[in-house]
Amino acid sequence: MTAELVRGQNHPLSQARLEIRVSAGTPLVAAAALSDENGRIQGVEWVAHPGAPTQPGLEVSRQAAADHRLAVDLDAMPEAVHRVSVLLALPGGGAGPVRFGSVAAPFTAVTGLEGGELVSYTLTGLDAESAVVALELYRRQGAWKVRAVGQGYAGGLAELFADQGLPEAGQLAGSIHDAVARGLARSVQAPPPRTADGDRSRQAAAPVLGPDQGGTAPQPGPVPPTSPHGGHTPAGPGQPAPQTPAYPGSAPDPDAVTAQCAPTTGGPVDYSHPRRQNAAPPPPPPTAPPAAPGQPAQPVAGDATGWSMDERLYNQVWGMFEDLARSAAAYRSAVDFAESRMDKELEQVLADPRSRIGGQGDAAREAARARHAQLVAQAREAFDRDLAQLAAEAEVVEPALPPAYARWDNPVWHAYRVPMEIPMALRLGDLHLPEADRVRIPMLVRLPLERGLWIDSGRTASAGDAFADAHALGRLAMEAAVAHAARLLAVYPAGEFTVHVIDPAGSGAQALAPLVQTGVLAAPPALGAAGVTDVLTRLTQRVDLVQMAIRGGAADALPPGFDTSQQLLIVNDFPHGFDDRAVNQLRYLADEGPSFGVHLMMVADREESSAYGPLLDPLWRSLLRLTPVPDDHLADPWVGHAWTYEPSPVPPGSQVLQLVLAQVAAARTKFI
């Protein structure tokens, strides 16, 4: 039974390995500080934060997110540590809230590794504070307890660290906020909002497995109402609401934590996702048949809550992403603990001159290695059990996915019909972790896109020598861009999505053939510097016009025949054919375009634009980076796992792309 604490109340802890969950209505920075028996932090190395996420017995998230999972192993704490303080802070330097009094009260819970809550605490009564000590795990007479603290600081993390006796308080606070800012560029979307129990809404029949980022990334739609326990009711479409991979994608990317554009009303221009019907509660999701005694529950496609099957599947995919992240974090933490324990035991053996040599020392070393192997084996057994359940879930979920979520080799594409409304999200590829190569999680991003896409045609470390020819990698990148553009065209209703292409040197003609031959482009690919100038000028003027109309409340005053569809600009071979004015227009489209219906997809090698220096750094950071070959560049919003992104290519020899685009072109002709 969960103990709900109030400020100042404590509770004994019966387990050493714990998870601390944080849920809030806005992205927070989570950290943890170790302190001695006097409550003083001995140095910056005693703080686990996004810039240094792991310390002995601690692991925290690498970036700001609305939901966090902090791993704690009390048995691995150094003897000098008597307190572990959980710290929360609002990100600095952004456009978000600057005091806790303007956001929903954060909810914290201490759970065992199996997921059961031991204690919970909602941080109420905060006002001008921007940093707070939420919980404190402390050692008392050889046992550990948890105390609800709720001590806030209006001066932020710098004041908090100074109060705990850290001389480098200001420098550490600054480095934490810098690390959070850097992490946003590679994040995936945050997971979908949670239900009132503080965890994702999956039925009891679904596996309970072991985490912004995110992404969703991690992440992230409008902030949903919070429950009394700090959870969230299911939110509508949009995101890693997480834009991050991400993932599942994000990306997470997170590869991941962005806000959904606010819906607009009045007039023909509305670039928000259509609002979900909410007059009646959603029908109950399907449930699995009862499992045999002692056997795991059989997974069912769509077992998460939602107002439609698409939303249930979307939430279920994000739940699988979170489960895999959490299980992998638990496994890595267990292996790290086993190694640190073995190292400590071996040091003790070497510290005693009597046991350095001889049979006694050899026996002690063998015993330490045997205990290490046993702990690792136990952790791997639990991890494999989680992976087996996740793999079984993936086997039933993948065939049930709608076209927007499905791989190109899914038979659902052969029954494709142009939709009447846009889906919640779009699949950009798959994500997996090195320890769980057999489990692939679809990387979904919410629609409409809230960040542009960058298909990196430069060489990556993962590509190795397989693509020594830069032209081969560039061709793959352009093919990936065409596949993504085809997906976007396929999931929008007829006439609601328009694609433009800038190909100054014509190097992408072969890859662009499916788009050109089926007639789904707004115009032939623009060639040369003159083509670049023409397309960019028209799209920047369009953004200016729509921006003025919406902000002035005169959306119905747009010119007759104005194209209100979402616009996608594919740019190949950047910066070839771009002058300084064109570069500034491109940056403007990347920054302002998504809010007003113009999206950017770059196919470029960043090194080729290095002559611009740091001028283009904001451009690359504003885009979600994808690769045409597998690459581990995306991070989740919780513990910062390096997720390997795999693109979802069209199967060799398949005509599915041409068939889908032909239907899109035919539907557009009828629409016009």
Question: What does this entry look like structurally?
Answer:
The chain is of the alpha+beta class and 672 residues long. The chain is built from 11 helices and 21 strands. The strands form 3 sheets. Strands 1, 2, 3, 4, 5, 6, 7, 8, 9, 10, 11 and 12 form a 12-stranded mixed beta sheet that branches. Strands 16-17-18-15-19 form a 5-stranded parallel beta sheet, sandwiched between helices. A 4-stranded antiparallel beta sheet has the order 14-13-21-20. The protein is globular, with a radius of gyration of 26 Å. The N and C termini lie far apart (61 Å).
Q: Which regions contain 5 or more consecutive residues with pLDDT less than 50?
A: 185-281
Assign an overall shape: globular
Percent of residues in helices = 25-40%
Mean pLDDT: 81
Radius of gyration (Å) = 26 Å
Strand content: 15-25%
Q: What is the multimeric organization of the chains shown? A: single chain
Biggest β-sheet strands, sense, barrel: 12 strands, mixed
How many distinct helices? 11
**Gap between N and C termini, in Å?**
61 Å
Structural class, please? Answer: alpha+beta
Count of extended strands:
21
